[in-house]
Amino acid sequence: TINIFNFTGGVVDAVPFYSNNVGNSATRTDTGTQQSYLNLEVYSYDLNVAAITLTPGVPYLLSIVQDLPSGVSFDWGWSLGTADGIGTAYTRTLVLPWSETTAQMTSGSGELAFYLTGPASVPEPATLALLGVGFAGLGFSLRGKLS
Q1: What pLDDT does residue 106 have?
Q2: What is the pTM for the complete model shown?
Q3: Domain regions of the chain by residue span
């Protein structure tokens, strides 16, 4: 399940404004590299979800919930920074429900959360201006051929 939460007054809302139980619809691709620190395979996951409108400059919390029965163990991790995954790595073997509570875990819930911020929005080029430049180029091209 993927959840996205708003921050209200610097506190994460108790209920997500977006929740999607994706089941097994994510596509896993072996990147062909090993994370050299722990010698783990590195995979990428792709998932198509319905469009969500987020406001630029507003922080959100993305929560990926591992929906497994209690007592099932799983490994979950991510790496950032370099192709071999050494830059910044976090991995944890978990057995649900677990008792540890850290900034990355919520005790007993079976989820890891990511604090998301993104770059400022990039304005789209003016479509009419691009169309005008195209017509001007076409006009100059035709003018040269007709002369």
Answers
A1: 35
A2: 0.49
A3: 2-146
